[in-house]
Amino acid sequence: MNNHFSANLEKTGEVGYVKKQVQSIIYVDGLPTAHLNELIFFENGATGLVFSLGEKYVEVLFLSGERISVGDRATRTGGLVGVDVGDFLLGSVVDSLGKRIDGGGVTPEKTISIDQEPRGMLGREQVDTPFQTGVKMVDMVIPLGKGQRELVVGDRKTGKTLFLMQTLLAQAKRGTVCIYAGIGKRQQDIRSFLDFIESQGIQKNVITVLSGAAEDSGKVFLTPFTAMTIAEYFRDKGVDTFIIMDDMTTHATYYREISLQARRFPGRSSYPGNIFYIHAKLMERAGNFDTASITCMPVAESVLGDLSGYIQTNLMAMTDGHIYFDIDRFNQGQRPSVNPFLSVTRVGLQAQSPLVREVSRQVSSFLVQLENMKDFMHFGAEMSQGVKDTISLGDRVMSLFEQDYRNVVPVNATIYLVARVWAGLGKGEEKQSVVAKCNEIIKDYQTNKETQTRVDEMILGSPSFKDLVAKVKEEGRINEG
Amino acid sequence: MYSNILEGLQTKDDLLLLKEELEKLKLAIFQNKNDFNDVLDNKIRRSISERIKMDLQNEKTDPAKYIEGFEEELKKIVEVKLVLARELNGKTFSSVYQWFLDNMGIHVVLDIHYKSSILGGAEVSLNGKFLDGSLTKKIASLSQE
Question: Of chain A's two ends, which shows fewer C-beta atoms within 10 Å, N or C?
Fold first, then answer.
């Protein structure tokens, strides 16, 4: 008999007997005072979670351990499913129950229940600090703030995960604790992700919470909750955290599977009625708090570019904006394939400096103007010089936003680049040449301390974008002279 | 009405057997009266069939209603799961059963299992409540003290 089972049986004095099992749902007779989400131990050491309480049986969601048989005994623990937390988690890879799967040591400081109530409004603060993704287009057009919940949505294979890796890289380098929740992932994708963080040398600031596609659906279901609990632990220690939930449509699919097995009444697209609540409660646990922030990027996969799916629109309603990865732009070769017109940031702009806000507005309105002109061009109208100039600037702006997923660009370098393009950088040149020039400027900024100081001072000393462009032009004239 | 039959029910096996017999009678009712009598005479334990016949004669009730009421009564019986170290003789069994009847105040049936590792005493489960009265537990707690 398992030691945990015996100890809990003695503690609670309650026993139940397994009557039947349907996939991951176990029907237990007994356990008269069991409560929802309580951790259950079976006599062979397996664990489960009270999923619902019926007239005849307690429905237990199987989590881990040996397979159980009809007649096996089960007992309550009196506690909820919890995760061991501590600094040992930094750089670790854990499963959805918080158990290390990378072979590393465990020195837990405490165990926290994964079902936490979100903090009330008293512990919360305005989103007022910029959150850098290191992706030029996002930092300029859809800027984010620390504590923001930003949905990343798009069809499969449109570069969503690559964008998330870039953001993770940018944040990990800045000392933010980054938590990646891989929900029902393929082993190959997990390997690629782990190889990426290892190759970038950022393991120390990254915690990976994983569940594979072949694991029990109960474990997959718990993955984002465990990740969020870990984030809350670091938040309470005063450390800013960044959490990625990759992806929530898979999470909803697994939850739908569990609910259908448990014979819960199916709602729209067969999802259970409480799917909104489950996700909304999870999203509500992120935000900017008085101790530190939890910036959250849930991911949703769309099908054929349809943004109006049930889970996608639910998540849009819960988050503070979304970044849309457009399959058409991806196929046209745009990297990252972010669609600036269908992407939204609700609280991000208020967290930016006045200059960034102005640049963002300038670039956004320019892109809208460009799009309108391109639509107009479809009619075959003859172009004036003004239109040609706008199209040329548009091409250069899009070239400026081209970015390899292994590179992250500081915001100041991006602002400087935008000012350089506005001042005429790459005018009349081929796209490749513009991209090369931009990369050269970024490299110079990142490797040359003098350049970095000069650019930073120039940006700091510019009250407006117009002023910055004028300074950049002046700088160009001096260099030419 | 059913008390003379229920008095004899002491174990879960007795209960299951009785339920099976009632099921046979129920099926027979929906065929014809001869079938019912045939089942009552030949496929049910004599001790039970005689008591049923007596009840039906005395109460002048419909067999279908009688069996339905009987099944409802059986649902009220509480199962007590008892894990013992060794088999009990008839006398000890009776005193154990009587103890439950006296102390619980409700009709119970005992579901007895054997596990030599508990050495002595008993583990009792009732309505999801568990009581470990085994000798193993007693020894373990004494050694801890």
Answer: C
